[in-house]
């Protein structure tokens, strides 16, 4: 895995943007970003179809395709059919990584058994989870085979740093990769005015970069966290790829820490 991937949520919603969205993903691949994150949930499968179109004709072995199963499909009854439907829409015969989208009602034992069965049959290479807090990870580790989970995808951006208190250290200790979703705080929409923040702009000025690029460079600053920003145009994709090359200085990081401190105590997991 590498430190930046491409998100796809909210793609395929506007026919007028479709060509740009496909071009953005292809631009990303051309620039060396090989991980694409999607889900059966997005656009009720329409986003996987769009991703399938974007990757058609590319060297599949060079790509890392991640999709997710919704919790209500994560048991013996539905999971294989869900996975097969995702593969069909994506036009591929395996997923590099399959995630449980968030904790649900199906017992973890059953979900793990289904993931392992898909893996044994070659439909997926590896599996993981998303929106799992420390107690969820501990429960997963108590299940037979649960420790085969390789990744947890969680909300992480400058204004949502709660995972740093105990989830991120837990994952590091247990060899579980952290995938940071909404690393741009959804383009600054969620955190109103974030793009205009003076500290963020001062750091951006020092790097001849945009505030959004700094948010992204910050999310990937440890060289381990895999951030998956969504770019709906080749221009945004190029900015994001550039951001992956920005190294924040200790002074930048200290300024950002003062302005956007991590919480002192563990809050409940923040998620969308
Ligand atoms: N596991 C989960 O539960 C979960 C939840 C949420 C998200 N995700 C995944 O994480 C991905 C990323 O999260 P997200 O889509 O919520 O939000 P995000 O990546 O934080 O932000 C996306 C927004 O940022 C804008 N943007 C992208 N690059 C930009 C740039 N260089 N300059 C200015 N604006 C830029 C995009 O606009 P344009 O479209 O115009 O480029 C879009 O409005 C999702 O797409 C999805 O794959 C997973």
From TrEMBL:
Q: Which positions bind substrate?
A: 101
Matching entries from PANTHER family are given as: ALDEHYDE REDUCTASE, OXIDOREDUCTASE, ALDO/KETO REDUCTASE FAMILY PROTEIN
Q: Where is this site: Lowers pKa of active site Tyr?
A: 68
Q: What is this protein called?
A: Aldo/keto reductase
One Gene Ontology molecular-function label? oxidoreductase activity
User: Where is the catalytic site?
Assistant: 42
NADP-dependent oxidoreductase domain span: 4-257
Q: Which Pfam families match?
A: Aldo_ket_red (PF00248)
